[in-house]
Fold each of these.
Amino acid sequence: MITKLKLATLSKSLLIGSLLAAFSANTLAHDHGNKALQSIIEARPAEMQARDQYRNPQETLDFFEVKPGMTVAEALPGGGWYSGILADYLGKDGALYGINYVDSMWARFGFFSEERITEMKAATKAFPGLVAELSDSGIAVEGYTFETIPEALDGTVDRVLFIRALHNLNRFESQAGTLTQALKATYNMLKSDGLVGVVQHAVAESDADNDGSRGYLKASQVQAAFEAAGFELVASSDINKNPKDEPTASDIVWRLPPSYVGVGDDADKKKAADAIGESNRMTLLFKKKS
């Protein structure tokens, strides 16, 4: 005969067992995902992996809680350094959208040739082809600008990633509201429980606010812009921090590898830049305000 005490004990044991089983399943799934991501990262060409020590792709994507099968929008995908990793990791059940700056923004820089501007505008429609060269995962891929994202995408995106893409949006904010527009588009396409991941060249909070033309921003500037757009900070990380990068008020981020702007053939300057490495970067995670 089962007494009430034995029944209660049995129920408690079953509950604990179920919780442990669920925990183990989640842990195994998480570990499997990490191993899958690690394998993808380690399978890339050596020249791509050379920058992993500074970009920390596995730790960064894990921090952003990116999972296989998700729909992810990547701001300013450029040559596809992260796009290839994302396409393989998200897989055929996922979707990847490359979101470029609006076409009118390229001429605002003032130093791009007409030919180069045409190439950068064309990169938006060419994004699916770029991803196809980097991955055979069969993932759904589309390219847009921040002003051509269709309304059909509203509320459908799990993650939006701004990886070293915010400084130029902030650079032309006062002229054309570029950052405001990008964050509004981000808010609209993000699911209610979606997240926005940011990696951005960072200067110390003791520095003066700046427009981003040097490549750097302050974390407080970024957070304020996101809060004004309806987001709140979830977490921050030192994953991509580089304390060796201590720029002066006139230093640009492109003085460092891999750009080496201003270094030329000066071996001492290159040695000094290499001793610093790539830039110091903030890593932030945002969600929509509840």
Note: Residues 59-288 form a domain with the Rossmann fold fold (CATH 3.40.50.150).
Amino acid sequence: MPELLPRRRLDQPRASGRRFIAFDPDTFGRLSERLARFLGTGKYLFWQTLIVLVWIALNLGAATLRWDPYPFILLNLAFSTQAAYAAPLILLAQNRQDDRDRVSLEEDRNRAAQTKADTEYLARELAALRLAIGEVATRDYLRGELDKLREDLNTRPRKPKPNRQAPEPVTGT
């Protein structure tokens, strides 16, 4: 059986050389986040409400400008189109925010683990210092020992001190 050409093999993915439009996913994500943030503002709601009111007023009041009569099918189509694009953009912005939150949470966990390790280390060092200080003679202990020694010296009977005068020189006469 003859071997198929590499471009016709079904067990390997096709090369992606057919892209006509190249775009940066991060740029598109940033743009979608900006748009999603704008869609959630009061400014957007104000302008959208104003446009809808003008649309309805012109279509109901002006006899010559009725491009969308009463059921306002064109207005409904515009809202449907807006919703069809807004929902995925908002979801994309939420996914990007989730990714940032996940990274931030991981950094917080690492920082908390490092802080815990540092705290445990310092607690061990403090305990070791406490043990070491327990074995060191303190000022009060030394003062007490010196007082006991002074009392012992004061209570012993004193022996006369030997006269330590220099011997007289011997002269040869």
Note: Helices lie at 25-39, 42-61, 73-135, 139-155.
